[in-house]
Design brief:
The chain is an alpha+beta fold. It is 17% helix and 36% strand. The chain has helices spanning 14-27, 49-52, 57-69; strands spanning 6-8, 29-30, 42-47, 80-87, 94-97, 108-116, 123-124, 127-131, 134-137, 147-151, 156-158, 161-163, 165-175. It is globular and about 45 Å long. The chain starts with 5 loop residues before the first strand and ends with a strand.
Length: 179
């Protein structure tokens, strides 16, 4: 693993963000794997194929993994994309956590990919990742359209949104259990 995380600035433009959010409004269903003790955002999901015509995020993640992480991934599994909405009304946040699957599964999450899908300005909602001994504010994710990819086992959090609404898209990429 060369780096702790990888990012692409301006991965989506404003028009692509609007299209993706519109598809979520029409086709999303409730995301049921939420951690209510850690999270005060709302989450919905839809099949990944619904947005693949706009941008092939899975292909992007495969290329990021190949050049940056080198993890053993299951490729081309079109699972769900999740939309998290963090509202200032509820001080939306996600406390320190790792992403993963229960041991009863035959796979685990290897990479978490986040894309800022916000259409309006907001305050707060800063993304932090634990690098070594110190938390690090990953400022690149503050800008709509930017993409961030990192190993799912790294501790990360979103600080409370204090004004407006922060929206992110999440794609989890899975693989065999760590060896």
């Amino acid at each position: 693993m060369k780096f702790t995380y990888y990012y692409i600035q301006d991965y989506l433009n404003k028009q692509e963000i609007k299209k993706i959010n519109a598809i979520f409004k029409k086709k999303a269903i409730e995301f049921k794997k939420q951690a209510p003790t850690l999270k005060t955002s709302t989450a919905v999901q839809m099949p990944y194929k619904e947005i693949q015509k706009i941008k092939d995020i899975n292909l992007t993640v495969i290329n990021i993994n190949r050049s940056t992480f080198g993890f053993d991934l299951y490729e081309n599994i079109n699972d769900y994309i999740i939309q998290n909405t963090y509202s200032a009304k509820y001080r939306g946040q996600y406390k320190w956590h790792q992403d993963g699957e229960p041991y009863s599964q035959n796979y685990t999450l290897k990479l978490t990919t986040l894309i800022n899908l916000s259409e309006e300005k907001y305050s707060g909602g800063e993304f932090f990742i634990h690098e070594g001994a110190n938390p690090h504010h990953v400022k690149v994710l503050d800008k709509p359209g930017n993409l961030l990819c990192f190993p799912s086992f790294l501790l990360h959090k979103v600080t409370p949104v204090t004004q407006g609404t922060r929206i992110t898209g999440t794609v989890f990429t899975s693989g065999r259990w760590w060896k």
